[in-house]
Amino acid sequence: MTYVVTDNCIKCKFTDCVEVCPVDCFYEGENMLVIHPDECIDCGVCVPECPAEAIFPDSDPAAEPQWLRLNRDYADQWPNITCKKEPMPDADALNGLPGKLADFSTKPGEGD
Ligand code: SF4
Ligand code: SF4
């Protein structure tokens, strides 16, 4: 099992999640974070830290197979992120809005 990041993370980067992960398995894209499924130890401590409620166990219906695939694909391509940074400008305004997948960027973030 693993935890996966889903669509409400797009354009967020509150990044509270990365600070609590004991194995540093978050990876940063231009406007979303993902979890590496082979590195996550299923501890669940990141879930209550995410203000966008975007993290789910892969057994949850909210974590559809497409999200597990997306997390795996981009965790292999994007840089690791372990430190909290400033959220994206519209993070609060866009929190919870539907249709965020249309804004997903495949480009890597800066990492740390
Ligand atoms: S706190 Fe949640 S929504 Fe924000 S970057 Fe982390 S996983 Fe994404
Ligand atoms: S469930 Fe635990 S190991 Fe997995 S990403 Fe969240 S904090 Fe990290």
Number of domains: 1
What's the gyration radius in Å? 12 Å
The biggest sheet, with number of strands, parallel, antiparallel or mixed sense and barrel status, is: 2 strands, antiparallel
Ligands in the model, by name, code or SMILES, are: iron/sulfur cluster
Q: CATH fold name, please?
A: Alpha-Beta Plaits
Distance between the termini: 27 Å
Task: List unreliable stretches of 5+ residues.
Answer: none
Q: What is the CATH C-level name? A: Alpha Beta
Query: How are the strands of the largest sheet arranged?
Result: 1-4
* Tally of DSSP β-strands: 4
Keywords: 3Fe-4S, 4Fe-4S, Electron transport, Iron, Iron-sulfur, Metal-binding, Repeat, Transport
GO molecular function, one term: metal ion binding
Cofactor: [4Fe-4S] cluster; [3Fe-4S] cluster
Domain 4Fe-4S ferredoxin-type: 1-30, 31-60
Q: Would you mind describing this structure in some detail?
A:
- The chain has a single domain, classed as 2-Layer Sandwich (Alpha-Beta Plaits), CATH 3.30.70.20.
- By secondary structure, it is an alpha+beta fold.
- 18% of the residues lie in helices and 11% in strands.
- The strands form 2 sheets. The chain has a two-stranded antiparallel ribbon.
- The protein is globular.
- Ferredoxins are iron-sulfur proteins that transfer electrons in a wide variety of metabolic reactions.
- InterPro entries: 4Fe4S_Fe-S-bd, 4Fe4S_Fe_S_CS, 7Fe_ferredoxin, Fd_C, FdxA, RnfB_subfamily.
- Pfam families: DUF3470, Fer4.
